[in-house]
Amino acid sequence: MLKLENISKTYNHRHEPLTVFDRISYEMLDGDFISIVGPSGSGKSTLLLMLGGMMSPSSGKVVIDGESIYDLPPNQRAEFRRQKIGFVFQTFNLVPYLSALENVQMPLFLAGLSEIEQKERATSVLERLGLGARLAHKPSELSVGQQQRVALARMLANDPTVVLADEPTGSLDPETSAQVMDFFEEINQEGRTVVIVTHDPSVARRAGKMLRLGDCKAPYDEQAPVWASVV
Ligand SMILES: Nc1ncnc2c1ncn2[C@@H]1O[C@H](COP(=O)(O)OP(=O)(O)O)[C@@H](O)[C@H]1O
Ligand SMILES: [Mg+2]
Prior knowledge:
Layout: E1 2-13, E2 16-28, E3 33-37, H1 44-51, E4 59-64, E5 67-68, H2 74-84, E6 85-88, H3 100-110, H4 115-128, H5 144-156, E7 162-166, H6 174-189, E8 193-197, H7 201-205, E9 209-212, E10 229-230
The site of adenosine-5'-diphosphate has 14 residues, from strand 1, strand 2 and helix 1.
């Protein structure tokens, strides 16, 4: 279970405070498939990073499986993240000088698997994503859709129970985008909690629950509906 408890987040932008969230709470159940929608700047990426253990809230708690993750020391939080969370970044964040296989090996290397185990696991995940014939290709030698699948494979490599994806279909054509959504549905049916940020209503509709973020006004306006509605 993922719980946001009374979360606030204020950035400092050129010495001006910018409040993105103000004391919000929300609970995600194991096996939920949730889309997060909202206008640009409404805090979708911020929320995902907070859920993923990558950005601490200004106040409040993020609780995953009973553990308040920002109360853990940084090394334990990193370990927790490695074990439980798979993250797909909007811009893929593949390492350009590493092959597809090496990119997917990276989290397995960090988890301390032997090189043989890393290669076996990374190969089988890439095969699952239809990239068995592209193991040695570098990101620049792959199409955008293939790069996205390498990012998905890297996210899945550690067998995460929680999958967080920021605009995973943002740069894909409709057909490739539908395939990526098939993949998310499949891994959700395996019992993983899936949270996807999207601009695309057809993508959002495929998730079971939709979380809609409101406008984030800058500079901070106390009347602003910073956390609008849960649909
Ligand atoms: N590192 C940062 N420093 C200052 N302001 C930021 C930072 N990151 C995001 N913001 C601001 O916070 C708001 C929410 O950003 P973000 O979470 O990226 O929104 P979204 O993903 O919905 O487009 C935006 O107004 C953005 O300009
Ligand atoms: Mg964003």
